[in-house]
Amino acid sequence: MNTAPTPQASATTPPDAISATGLRKSYGDKVVLDGIDLRIPEGTIFALLGPNGAGKTTTVEILSTLITADAGQARIAGHDVAADAGSVRRKIGVTGQFAAVDGLLTAQENLLLMADLHHLSRREGRRRAAELLARFELTEAARKNVATFSGGMRRKLDLAMTLVGRPRIIFLDEPTTGLDPRSRRVMWGLIRDLVTDEGVTVFLTTQYLEEADQLADRIAVLDHGKLVAEGTADELKRTIPGGHIRLRFADEAHLTAAADLFGIATADDESLTLRIPGDGTLPHLRAVLDSLDSTGVRAESLTVHTPDLDDVFLTLTGRQNAAPAPAPTHTNSQMESAR
Fold it and tell me: Exposure winner among 57, 107, 175, 235, fewest CB in 10 A?
């Protein structure tokens, strides 16, 4: 599903940080991107999901001026990526799948080297390095060789190096690959802070579905070089069937009465539960409870089950083993002694 960029933002809509129309890229006979459109407002986090080989990294490489598209147009902070690549590079920062730090240097030296590349004065470079070391809780390790760092520390330093030049748009290509769950959540917090504290725009590619669910304002799913869906996490989940309310009863009499009340429900006599299809919204939940109240049927518990991004991903891409670190199977909300 492609959403064409609009030429101008309205007075209440942030301007586009990133926009693209009809991006295409092939390598020989292999089509990697097949005409994708993007529109990403300033100060938001956008996540691009997709199986291996879907074209995620190629999209980042085109938008960050590392490679050129075969067709289509893209603009970053108002600058054309093909015609004005220099201006684009001054606005962006890129963190790849693997930390691009020098293990033979200390953390401070890595940051000072990046400051030199950004043509900061010696004084400003040291000030910026100290600021970033403090922000990423690396001050105590500032003078240690990066070769001694853990994976999480290396990824934090990599992100800090990306920020030396104060980019307004940051591309994070699978930034938490290989990190343990605790380090991954630390990175999530740092990414959120960049947006809330500094108003930067983050373009995130990931195979971790929970990561996109936790961070992204909007999510797009890329498969075989095409965008097959785009929306908020909740919007995408609502496109997938399977949501239901599960009621548990104390005895068969109440289960049977409830089953008669909800004709489309599925009863399980062994577990004394009733499954009622629904979208999990408050109006639907209220309607079910009101129906039980009106007839005096009492449920022992109620659980709402809604599709998650795993369901969205597998339904849209049809690849059963594409996501290495899936999110939990369901989002549950339980109300004891529901009526």
Answer: 235
